[in-house]
Each structure stands twice: as structure tokens, then as C-alpha cells.
């Protein structure tokens, strides 16, 4: 009985997850298509709302399809309360749950992640602070960029 459920559920979940992932890629691609100031200016208007609502909903749905149900206790800090949001131990795919629950904030990520097929487009739509491990000034530049975004008085989304 349990094996039979697994044989049926695993392919269904994989197909649904793949469909949701491709939808998320499409949403991210549309929101960033011909984006003015690509990466240097924050997304505004319909582009930002599309990322916040579309990607957040799709991410939550993907985790639900995979069998995870997340309940939030308490209240998520707003951008004005906390321009920098710290999540730890950011080492797994569960970080995306935090992103979905907090309205798809900007993240700090390796530069190499931006060139990954499908995930790279989705990641780029979050306007990440890219960290290059080969650049000796990368740590200083990353801190400066996070500070600039945190002090932007709400122009940039929260940084996680």
C-alpha cells in the first residue's frame, strides 16, 4: 500500500513541481524583460508586485506539492522595521520558504548561481547582491551594497 502510494505520488509531484518551476521562470522572465537599470535600480511598480505575489505564491505552492506545509507564528518584520533580514543556517533549499514568506526579498548569493539555467533567471529577478569568490574586494563590495540598499528608505526590498 505505501509503496503503491509512492509509485503514484512521486511522479505526480515531480510533474507538478516541474510545471510550477517553469511557471516561476516565466514570471521572473516577464518581470525582468527589458528592465531599466538592470541590477542597479530596484524593480518598481508592476514588476515588483509580479515578483512579490507571483513568485511568492508559486514557491509556496511548490513546497505544498512536495509535501511541506509551513505555518508562520508571529508577524514578519516589515521593510521599515528591518531592512536587513537574517536567516540562518542558510544552507539548504529550505531558504526559499523564508523568501516566499517574506515577500521575495533580495538575497546575497554567489555570482555563479546567476548563470544556472532556469534557477538563475528566477534568482536574478530577486535582484540579489552577487558575491564573487574570485574578487578579493568582494567582501567589502558586498557589505557596501547591503548597506546602500538598507539605507535606501524603502526603494529596495529587504535583503535576506
UniProtKB/TrEMBL annotation:
SUPFAM superfamilies cross-referenced by the UniProt entry: Glycerol-3-phosphate (1)-acyltransferase
UniProt keyword Chaperone, yes or no: no
Domain of life: Eukaryota
Keyword check for Zinc-finger: no
GO CC annotations on file: endoplasmic reticulum; membrane
GO BP term (any one): lipid metabolic process
Domain Phospholipid/glycerol acyltransferase per the UniProt entry, residue ranges: 70-156
Main location: membrane
Pfam family, one: Acyltransferase
Transmembrane segments: 12-33
GO molecular function, one term: lysophosphatidic acid acyltransferase activity
Subcellular location: Membrane
InterPro entries per UniProt: Plipid/glycerol_acylTrfase
Keywords: Acyltransferase, Lipid metabolism, Membrane, Transferase, Transmembrane, Transmembrane helix
PANTHER family: LYSOPHOSPHATIDYLCHOLINE ACYLTRANSFERASE 2 (PTHR23063:SF21), PHOSPHOLIPID ACYLTRANSFERASE (PTHR23063)
Similarity annotation: Belongs to the 1-acyl-sn-glycerol-3-phosphate acyltransferase family.
Stated name of the protein: PCAT2 acyltransferase
Amino acid at each position: 500500500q505505501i509503496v503503491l502510494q509512492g509509485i503514484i505520488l512521486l511522479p505526480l509531484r515531480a510533474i507538478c513541481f516541474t510545471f510550477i518551476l517553469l511557471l516561476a521562470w516565466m514570471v521572473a522572465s516577464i518581470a525582468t524583460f527589458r528592465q531599466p537599470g538592470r541590477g542597479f535600480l530596484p524593480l518598481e511598480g508592476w514588476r515588483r508586485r509580479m515578483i512579490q505575489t507571483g513568485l511568492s505564491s508559486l514557491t509556496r505552492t511548490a513546497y505544498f506539492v512536495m509535501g511541506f506545509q509551513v505555518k508562520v507564528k508571529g508577524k514578519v518584520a516589515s521593510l521599515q522595521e528591518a531592512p536587513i533580514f537574517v536567516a540562518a543556517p542558510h544552507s539548504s533549499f529550505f531558504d526559499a520558504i523564508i523568501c516566499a514568506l517574506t515577500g521575495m526579498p533580495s538575497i546575497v548569493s554567489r555570482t555563479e548561481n546567476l548563470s544556472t539555467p532556469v534557477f538563475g533567471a528566477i534568482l536574478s529577478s530577486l535582484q540579489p547582491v552577487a558575491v564573487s569568490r574570485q574578487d578579493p574586494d568582494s567582501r567589502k563590495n558586498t557589505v557596501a551594497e547591503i548597506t546602500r540598499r538598507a539605507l535606501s528608505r524603502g526603494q529596495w526590498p529587504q535583503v535576506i
